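Fig. S4 source data, part A: sequence.
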Amino acid sequence: MNGRDKRRAPRSRHNSVIEIFDVEGKVAASGRLIDFSKVGASFSVGDPVAMPEVFRARLRFLDEGVIEVEARVVWIKKDKNITRYGIKFDSLTRVNFRT
């Protein structure tokens, strides 16, 4: 392995909030956003969440605003007290974004 990052877009570290919605549009779970790019993100939750194939979520950036996404899970990693998820965005909409 050559040690280069193989991601399609650079990621920025974030310590913000992600809210995951159920099919009725209610918040089903929330977690801590770890990192974010234009094509995906990763986040962690305390208790594992049953994720549908495609889901909607809201990413709340503390100093920048809110983004709503439609996404799918591409990987899951379980650690001692948390579960981490990697997601790929199918769509991304800026909502109330500060400039």
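Fig. S4 source data, part B ends here. The two ends are 39 Å apart (CA to CA).
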